[in-house]
Amino acid sequence: MEINLISDTVTRPSEGMLQAMLVAQVGDDVFKEDHAVNQLEETVAALFGMEKALFFPSGTMANQTAIKLHTQPGDQLICDHYAHVYNYEGGGVSFNSGVSCKLIEGDRGRINASQVLASINPPDFYHSPKTRLVCLENTTNKGGGACYDFEEIKKIKEVCLEHDLSLHLDGARLWNALEATNDDPVAYGHIFDTISVCFSKGLGCPVGSMLIGSEKAMESALRIRKVLGGGMRQAGYLAAAASYALEHHRKPLVEDHKKAKEIEHVLQGLEFVSKVESVSTNIVIFSLNEGLDDNQFIANLATHGVRLIQLGKGKIRIVTHRDYTLEHHNHFIRILKSISF
Ligand SMILES: *Cc1c(COP(=O)(O)O)cnc(C)c1O
Question: Which of 58, 60, 71, 141 is at 20 to 30 A from 221, Cα to Cα?
Fold first, then answer.
């Protein structure tokens, strides 16, 4: 049995999703004539109570577009030192936007309002870069699927308003956060200037992300997407998958969360594991005892057909997802309990 826990992006489309893709009403989206894309964009904008949404081939491109539209070259953005936009987008912040990052050591990828306030460069001090944007991530990836407390987001927004900063949310796993916290997506739409979401993570789509914001912001985003080469033609086949996933694959995220929580408990009981980050969604991050080799442990599990990855030195990551079945889960738990390392 092959059990792939390296990411929630390894899923294949479900039967229902494939059917929805087959009957999609498509057109050329570069001419804005793809019915399925237009419909998905309207649905997602309405879901967050925002004016407009734009379909993207990847979450990276959606984030990079947002950063580009909120900044000018030379500006600085504020984010956590674990942020995806800083660590895992190929240096795009500087490549695409000529922007630097002021990094905050937050709590598992989450920053707070007083940290943001302390990181703003004085606007009249012309020697330092101009602070223009704050990027939050929810759930946090490298922070192990941690969710923001919405009250803290509100406080961060106040700081942004006082200091004329835009606020972007990297919501690649916002669906997981919403499922776990029961927060209202419209409340998110009210606070953030732009939000990116992914359909290709927990929702199980093969491809697809979206950027959501004001009419005016999305007009600029359309041009930036073009420049980045993100204009797609009959993208409606992908949009149909996303529409299907929004309707049918959101609720089952709780199953992924439940399995991750169970894995957390089992790991806590293993003597070669030194630390397990508290699980609130579908990501489990843990560390082995001092002196044990992460790669050797990962290779050991691979001999049992289980795939995991390292996420930075001293951290191993497990991500549960739709295609990680109950059968896989029970088998994996048995393996974990039986191996010695
Ligand atoms: C996966 C991910 C993205 C986007 O990744 P793509 O592979 O480009 O779709 C953005 N932010 C976070 C936190 C992610 O986990």
Answer: 141
